Amino acid sequence: MTGFDFPGLLAFWGKRSDDILTLVGEHLLVVAIALLLATVIGVGVGLLVWNSPVGRSLAVTSAAVILTIPSLALLAAMIPLFGLGWVPTLIGLTLYSLLPIIRNTVVGLREVSPAIMESATGMGLAPGAVLLRIQLPMAWPVIVTGVRVAAQLTIGIAAIGAYVGGPGLGQMIFQGLSSLGSKNALNYALTGTLCVIILALIVDGLFTLITRYTTSKGLRA
Amino acid sequence: MTDPTTDTGGSRILGGRPSEATIRTTTTITTVKNTSGAHIELKNVNKVYGDQAVAAVENFSMNVNPGELVMFVGPSGCGKTTTMKMINRIIEPTSGSITVDGREVLSLDPNELRRHIGYVIQQIGLFPHMTIAENISVVPKLLGWSKEKTKNRVDELLSVVQLDPRTFAGRYPKQLSGGQQQRVGVARALAADPPVMLMDEPFGATDPITREKLQVEFLRLQETIGKTIIFVTHDFDEAVRLGDRIAVLSDRSKIEQFDTPANILRAPANDYVASFIGHGAALKRLALIPLHDALLGRAADARGTASVVETDSLRDALDLLVLTGLPAIAVTDAAGRTVASVSVEQISAELGEDSGGLPERSEARS
Ligand SMILES: Nc1ncnc2c1ncn2[C@@H]1O[C@H](COP(=O)(O)OP(=O)(O)OP(=O)(O)O)[C@@H](O)[C@H]1O
Ligand SMILES: [Mg+2]
Fold this sequence. Notes:
The structure holds two protein chains of two kinds. Chain A is mainly alpha-helical. Helix content of chain A is 81%, strand content 0%. Chain B has a six-stranded mixed sheet. A four-stranded antiparallel sheet of chain B has the order 4-3-6-7, with no helix packed on it. The site of magnesium ion (MG) has 3 residues of chain B, from helix 1. Magnesium ion (MG) is lined by residues 80-81, 200 of chain B.
């Protein structure tokens, strides 16, 4: 490998800025869709199982098991089912996001104090109304934290999606790794990695804002 | 939302007509119009938790009159909370019957029932993610009240519990002191003007000074709203101060005595009740008797410049007599004119009387 050529990297960025932006956009999009799906599914599962010890451990354990499967293996296993491209990547990322979201939903819903539950019930709110109008809003900051953890997780894992032809910055990293020795190999790999890290930081900052604006003032510390 | 009658303020959901109750005030028998309270009857109610061998509540029977404030007192674990919570079905009785205005609560939809029974618990349980106004609006919203009616009600209730709506309506619970939260808890329970209120040690978590203030405010409030209230406490003095009648309970919610504070203080039914009253029964009784109910001396007998108002209690008078060392002090009317005098002998005489002079504050309610 030759020495690191910084002006070369800058030149590479100048020439490839459109590609880089497209890939960043794709990366963000695939992560966002996966998080949205996982939030809907995860919160839904959490709402269903939070009060049942069996359902709860079943849901959390299954999601935990999924997370232990190496990402490469999981993505590869999906090729025969869903082919290549966006779909296996999306499904993989959604599955990986489930654990933090389900777990935090369950924890958040269960954290509501018995006194609040009793006063809600005592006022004539049906169990469903207690769940949706009292417990869910109170658990919300905890749930958003789960989504935030999932976001950090999936922004990294999404890069692996390129292995199954998925979108995003992984394409750049893989291109670099597969052409080691060539002139731009290092530039590709480095740029892809750097962008993933920056994206992760930006998204994390974004979640601070999301938490702030979607949480009741009464719950903020 | 589901029941058109609820829009009248919610007091009729249980099927009762607004009832009238008579109470004997200090001098005359008056009729309290439109007591919004309901009649509550518990008959042979039992509660056995899970597979426990002994019942938490055993064969409990009680009649609570419309507009009456009944205190449950008893030691920890005797079953006060359990008994009370069976009325709004937070706890389901094992057997027995509970009726509110003649309707069996077990036959009603529990959520519908609860919307018409105000409920205040010791931990208050305000919803932290809702503003004070939103907290109070929960039941009115469930009952389908219009926005405007709800808002007016919120403002009205906040004023009733001495919180300025402009300052407090938009605040969140955590921005309130403990005593203020306690008041919001009471306001929230009153939101839909329920005929019945269940209060489980509502002032238990406050310091003694705030507590006394809340008690005074609460008494004044009850005078105007006339709800049927079951109030759980293990503070006997609180029971004496607030209750129309007190039920002294022992294990398994056994009723040891159920009578007016004055009668319980004068004639405890047994040693258990006596031990519950503790020391100073005579002083506690004196605190219940206003001067204008007692046989007093001539105005000319008054000595010194110290005086008490005729609406003060005999205890206040005794306090001043002891403090000044005078044989008799003046009793004035609201305008400040001396109308009588009072001495230690006259105060003792009031205690010695077995009946007649003692105010039976609510016993005569029917
Ligand atoms: N959910 C429950 N499961 C089993 N036993 C219970 C339950 N709740 C109360 N008990 C028991 O029933 C009895 C009465 O309890 P309860 O809460 O009614 O007492 P209390 O008079 O309100 O006491 P405190 O003054 O401490 O609040 C106690 O012996 C208690 O241990
Ligand atoms: Mg209790």
